[in-house]
Amino acid sequence: MTMTPTPAVSLLIQFEQQYSVNTADITAKIGRLQSVSRSEHMNGMREIQRLLADVSDLLEQMELSVHELPTGSQERTKYDTRVKSYRNDKRQLEIELQRVMERLRSHDDRSDLLSLDESINIDQVNSGVTYKTVNVLARPVNSKH
Predict the structure, then answer these.
(1) pTM to 2 decimal places
(2) Any signal peptide, and if so, which residues (predicted)?
(3) What is the mean pLDDT of residues 116-138?
(4) Dihedral, CA atoms, 76, 79, 81, 85, nearest 10 degrees?
């Protein structure tokens, strides 16, 4: 004989399903970030951050629903533990996104340097200071005093 879940438990079940869909989507999008073009990185990161914000909202709703369950009940303990676990999972997704963003930035910086290398003029001397000109920007290489 199965018991009919309380309204709070029914709501928590729906929240868990939505949480699963969102986190799976986030995981997939983080994985795809490395294979999309450089111009698509920012859009992908914004989309992932939006989904992470949705997950945060969802977790807050879950916590409110957990507090509607009777104190000390098995259901409350079970869902309280799950929500804490979901929060940890979300933190891990945020950490993974940061790592991917750092790798992409590092790769983009390297690509920029390599492409700029072709436009660097050999040392130019101006007022006793040696400069390397990169496009219209000049940076001192070493000073001669």
Answers:
(1) 0.70
(2) none
(3) 46
(4) -160
